[in-house]
Amino acid sequence: MNSSLVAADAHRVAIYYQSQYDNSLAANSPFGHYVTVLPLIGVITHLLLAAFHLNFDDVSVHLNDFVPEAPFFDQMWGEIAILQSTGIKVIGMLGGAAPGTYNPCLTPENFDTYYPVLAGYITRYHIDGLDLDVEQDMPLDDAIHLIKTLKADFGDDFIITLAPVASALVEGANLSGFDYIELENKVGHHISWYNAQFYSGFGTFFPDDLYLDIVGFGQGLDPSRLVATTLTSPDEGSGFIDIDSVTSSVQALAQKQHFNFGGVAGWEYFNSLPGGNNQPYLWANLMASTMAELQTNQTQLAKSKSTRSRVLPRSK
Ligand SMILES: *[C@@H]1O[C@H](CO)[C@@H](O)[C@H](O)[C@H]1NC(C)=O
Ligand SMILES: *[C@@H]1O[C@H](CO)[C@@H](O)[C@H](O)[C@H]1NC(C)=O
Question: What total of structural domains would you count in the chain?
Answer without folding.
Answer: 1
